[in-house]
Prior knowledge:
By secondary structure, the chain is mainly alpha-helical. It has one domain (17-82). Helices cover 73% and strands 7% of the residues. It contains 2 helices and 2 strands. Strands 1-2 form a two-stranded antiparallel sheet. β1 (36-38) and β2 (42-44) form a beta hairpin. α1 packs antiparallel against α2 (48-86). The longest helix is centred in the C-terminal third of the chain and has 39 residues, at 48-86. The two termini are 31 Å apart.
Amino acid sequence: MGTSEESPYTSAAVGLMALAAVAADLWFAYVFAVGGTLPLFGDVGPSIGAAIVWLMFGSPILLTIGYWIAILVVVPFEALRLRARDGRDTG
């Protein structure tokens, strides 16, 4: 999966962010299908059509944004960790 240089904290952070993105995606799909309240949409009535549209368009967008956030958070910290491990100056 990863290299021998990969930190277990990096794997854990990416895994938790992926879990959060998937949980949010499932929650949105559920609320669109059976109805409820969403933060940006307000009250949503039950609609299979809205759930299908969410799964086709909203879900890929949400998961892609979650991926970008994970990369933006993890990569700088991993770079700092590797510099510190190699004894290079981080400043």
